[in-house]
Amino acid sequence: MSGSSSISEARWLAVTITLTTLSAITISVAAAYIFKRKCNALKSKITELESSLNSCSDKCASERQGRIRAQQLLRKQLTQPKSQNPNLTCYPMIPIGTVHSCFSTRYGTPRQPLLVPLARACLVFNTSRVPPASLEGLADYSHCWIIYVFHLNTDLEKLWKHPSQSGFKAKVRVPRLKGGRKGVFGTRSPHRPCPIGLTVAKVEAVQGNVILLSGVDLVDGTPVLDVKPYLPYCDSIQDAAVPNWLMEDNLFTVASVSFSEGFTSSLENCWIMAEKKSLYASPGEFQSLVTQVLAWDIRSLSQRNRPHDVFMKKEKDQLLGDTYDVDEHLDETTFDHKREQDSLNSTEVIYHLILEGLDVSYRIDQDGNVIVEKVSTFADNKLNSSYNYLTWKDKLR
Ligand SMILES: *[C@@H]1O[C@H](CO)[C@@H](O)[C@H](O)[C@H]1NC(C)=O
Ligand SMILES: *[C@@H]1O[C@H](CO)[C@@H](O)[C@H](O)[C@H]1NC(C)=O
Ligand SMILES: *[C@@H]1O[C@H](CO)[C@@H](O)[C@H](O)[C@H]1NC(C)=O
Ligand SMILES: *[C@@H]1O[C@H](CO)[C@@H](O)[C@H](O)[C@H]1NC(C)=O
Question: How far is residue 2 CA from its own chain's centroid?
Answer without folding.
Answer: 105
